[in-house]
């Protein structure tokens, strides 16, 4: 069924006719990478695309937001060594996103968001959104669906370390995939895994960040506690993610840079 916000379902004259003064183009950035024994390789793509599509459907009819086809393979080299992890390096992802930015700009858009589902992409997203802004003068953004769910009170049955260390294939991702594609979640294989992080301040949370690969910390691929996700919790998490994303889309449509103070003000 044609989706009126999905750019790839439109014709080029229809794209040409869009009023671009505030129009926002949004690219879901997913991944194809290991997510433990219980979640599919496509987890980050399912979450970024699924949440975004639902949020776009809830926007007011007049809101000028357009969905681009997703990136489904991204920078997942930290998950190498787990069969099924298909990845490209940082330079390839950077080039791909930069050139997508260029062609979105050539199509007339002035606002672009990368809606990310995979933490390993964040460094590249920081650089490329700034460079697209610098090179083409576009207003650029990036964000993620799970940011609207992180920090929510967890059920008492969940390991308390989940709050700080549940970063991959853990409670949040399990809940969101369960809500979006329930038949792809293998509940019976969900097992907690909390790597023995150092307490010296060097590591995932200290002031000095030790760079890592999944195989340094986890043999199953899980970082966190993915157990105890009920259908109710899954639905609640999806609702939080979708509602947060609706607001984020509207905020980006309305966003304008404030004028800097004049030099006379010094
Ligand atoms: Zn993930």
Write the layout of secondary structure elements.
Blueprint: H1 12-17, E1 24-29, H2 43-58, E2 65-67, H3 90-106, E3 111-116, H4 122-136, E4 139-144, H5 162-165, H6 171-180, E5 202-203, E6 208-209, H7 214-217, H8 231-254
Parallel strand pairs: 1-2, 1-3, 3-4, 5-6
Helix pairs in contact: 2-6, 2-8, 3-4, 6-8
Written overview of the protein:
The chain has 8 helices and 6 strands. It is α/β, with parallel strands linked by helices and about 270 residues long. It has a single domain, classed as Creatininase (Rossmann fold). Helix 2 (about 45-60) crosses helix 6 (about 170-180) and helix 3 (about 90-105) runs parallel beside helix 4. The longest helix has 24 residues, at about 230-255. It is globular and about 50 Å long. Zinc ion (ZN) binds near residues 35, 44 and 168. Zinc ion binds next to helix 2.
Order of helices and strands: HEHEHEHEHHEEHH
Radius of gyration: 19 Å
Q: So what's the CATH class?
A: Alpha Beta
Shape: globular
Shape-level CATH architecture: 3-Layer(aba) Sandwich
Largest sheet data: 4 strands, parallel
Write down the CATH topology. Rossmann fold
- Please indicate the count of domains: 1
Helix/strand-derived class? alpha/beta
Strand content: 5-15%
Helix content bin: 25-40%
Q: Count helical runs.
A: 8
Bound ligands: zinc ion
Average predicted confidence as pLDDT: 94
Would you report the number of β strands? Answer: 6
